[in-house]
Sequence to fold (304 residues):
Amino acid sequence: MKHFLAILLLAVCAAAQTRSALDKTTLEAYVRHLFLYLPNIKVEIANPVEAGIPGFKKVKVRASLGAQADEHEFLISNDGKKILQAKVFDVAENPFKPELDLINTAGDPALGTPGAPVVIVLFSDFQCGYCKEEAKMIRENLLKDYPKEVRLYFKDFPLTQIHDWAKPAAAAGRCIAEQKADAFWEFHDWVFEKQSDLKAAEFNDKLTEWAKSKNLDTAKLDKCRASPEIDAAIDRTLAQGRELGVNSTPTMFINGRRINFAIKWPNLKQVIDFEIGYQKTAKNAGEHCCTLELPNLLGSPKSK
Fold:
């Protein structure tokens, strides 16, 4: 009996020693305990990739519950025994280069001067009250204070779990931009202004009425909105946002710097001014450096 218990103890110890955080099941169990992720929270473990640091792999972990999500990036030693939660910077590069590398603005509605030293990428939801407030702030101030220095791109991030007409509105905006680039911003302003009055059941009728008042081709608009290409384009934007760690709206990236909280214009202006000054010497962000230009997937010219 003593011999059996000794063998069992050795087996348990051996098993403990061979546990590796590079094993997804092991890492998930560890992370659930670390962050108190209960069974109703979905935990997704990405495959390990090179971390750029000798002796370590990089692993992304995403926890989600409905529309809410939480993301972490871990450095795991090659033997799987040690886990680091740290952000690694290369002093020779922009500290927000990982975010800039993930941002693709091709085909997105834009405001401001192409080639500007500061690029703002805004993930928004037409049915979101906070987005409405931020949209009003930006429209009232951005071009007035920065006619040449800033380029803003609008990205749809409809939170479909809680907003029932956000995705139809996103599709409408994209199709309007395809038909007439400048009309997107008229639509943008109209939707946010009428946000509290709009309902899912009435959205199509109200949109058609508005489109006719702007001399848009409503038959072409309806065909575009129903196309699988538009649905796929919105899904790609959602996927890009999630890869960037977007889990709420509005979230903006100013030359890659994440702003995912309510911000007033004087504070936002300070960030923009700082970045304008920094880029005069750094020249490692803005459109010339980091904005990817691709043809519009729906075949029309990119909005300017």
Remarks:
- Residues 124 and 249 are 5 Å apart (CA to CA).
- The first strand starts at residue 42 and ends at 45.
- The chain has eleven helices and ten strands.
- Residues 18-84 form one domain.
